[in-house]
Amino acid sequence: MAVLNISNFSTQQKDNKGIYYILDNAGSIMPAVSNKIYTSLFCFSVKLKEDVDKNLLQVALEKTIKRYPYFYCRLKKGLFWYYLEPLNNPPSIDDNIEPCCINYDINKPGKPLFRIRCFQNIINAEFSHSLTDGFGGMEFLKTLLYEYFLLKGFIKDSLNTDKFLNRSSSSILNEEYEDSYKRYFSSSIPKPQPLPIAFHIPSRELQENKYRVIVGTLDLEKTLELARKKKLTLTEFLSSIYIYSLQKIYFNLPAKKRKRMSVHIKCEIPINLRKFLPSGTLRNFSLFMLAGVDCRMGVQTLDEIFELTHHQFQGDLRKKEHLKMLKRNVASEYLFAVRMIPLFLKIFVLKISFYVLGEGLLSGFLSNFGSINLPDEFSNYIEKFDFIPAPGKATKTNCSVISYKNCLSICFGSRIYSRELEKNFFSTLVELGLEVSVKENLI
Q1: What is the pLDDT of residues 101-123, one digit of tens each?
Q2: Within this chain, do residues 88 and 142 fall inside the same structural domain, yes or no?
Q3: How far apart are CA 338 and CA 379, in angstroms?
Q4: Is the dihedral of CA 279, 174, 138, 159 positive or negative?
Q5: Banded pLDDT at 335 (limits 50, 70, 90)
Q6: Do 80 and 223 have their domain in common?
Q7: Residue 184 domain-assigned?
Q8: Could you give the CA distance from residue 329 to residue 92 in angstroms, rounded to a whole number?
Q9: Mean pLDDT of the chain
């Protein structure tokens, strides 16, 4: 490609064939490690109070992609890196939502890196981490809902939504498609210390086309009240229970089998860097922190894990710690030798790096998106939101959390037969005095 214009941070480029987009630092590894099963797709699911009009949703989607042209692209291979090429054909909506997050290959020619599906009163919006993170995906979904509700006549165009979402008519800012990792990269900052490989649940994988989703629904205020009594944030509280549940699995294994396992139980907690480093990007801009226990220290009580997790959070939730991780991830992009490696060789290196520097270090992850803020008028038509995690090859069973109004939704996505982690997690919440409604394969 003969590049005509380059910005330090912008992912939008232009050559003699037109506009294209380079992938951000986090997204660049995903095509190499994604396939039809481990798709890199996460899902926001919204349950409406009436059935979806698919035809109107199609019109709303066509309006929405005009607002986010940098999302409606297909993956292409260059000589040295993957890149995104804008699609010109109209987007389509599938009328089947099961199973979510799998059976979709982003590497297949012509495939967009997101898909919108609906069935009865549910809309699923699934996004590849090659394209965006949860923040960007939710901004897209909010605009889609706005356009749909407008077409349905539920809301008026005069509704004051500017502080909640982008309309299809609002201006597109250059910073929306920038690579903010590069904006905050500094070569003078040291890399973080290397981490050991973590414990992974021993269990057989489900059939290729299966992805089990178990959803627990709780009262948000009661859960927050309990977390505050423990002097914890909601994320600290839930992460501690996740670690405690994994610890149970580890120590229930026969001693002989444990000897072959890592002693490190580590829970990844994604961090939205926009809360610490100013950025308007709708590409990926998140890193993760780790909390966990060393099983060589013996069985720890839940209260001990609450205290340990809290202190681990306080240590890692510092701007300078984020910059260290950012340095580790971005530094290789600036090495001339790495940049000159042909893509077919890079793919091999990226797959190894993803395990050694990514999934291999994690026993699983718990991603808390937080509360969704929408105009009050929307609540008349929305019942709840769910957030389903992307399938993990090494982590196997992962958890995503989201809340809307007073409804807290905790979703486990799993590619293994064992339900032990989910059972331990929800049983612990009940033992702590919370009422939990649990449904399997809800969507």
Answers
A1: 999 999 999 999 999 999 999 99
A2: yes
A3: 50
A4: positive
A5: low
A6: no
A7: no
A8: 35
A9: 91
